[in-house]
Amino acid sequence: MATSTTSPETAFINKLPQITAAFWIMKITATTLGETGGDWLSMTMNLGYLTSTIVFFTLFVVALGAQLLAKKHQPYLYWTVIIATSTAGTTMSDYMDRTLGLGYTKGAAILVTILLFLLGAWRWSVGNVAVNDIRTRKAEVFYWITILFSNTLGTALGDFLADDSGLGFFGSWLLITGILGVILVATYFTRLPKVLLFWIAFILTRPFGATFGDVLTKPHDKGGVDLGRGDSSLVLLAILVVAILVSYRKKGQQTPEMAPS
Question: Is pLDDT at 159 greater than 90 in this prediction?
Answer without folding.
Answer: no
